[in-house]
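New to this. Help decode both lines:
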Amino acid sequence: MGSVNSIREELLAYMNRNQMIHSHFAELSGINSGTLSRILKGNHPISMAQLVAITAGMKLPEDYFF
C-alpha cells in the first residue's frame, strides 16, 4: 500500500513542479480527468494501464515505478 501512496506523491510533486493542473496531466497521459482526480485523492486504485500512462505522462523510464 505504501508504494501506491509514493506514486501519488510523486505524481503530485511532478504536477506541482511543472505548475500543472490535473486536467492538463489527464490530457498528456490519456487518463480520464475524473479518474485521475480520484487517483490523486486516493479514492481509486491505480491499475497497471494507468500506471503505464502516468509514467509516460511524467516522461519517466517505462519501468520507473516497478
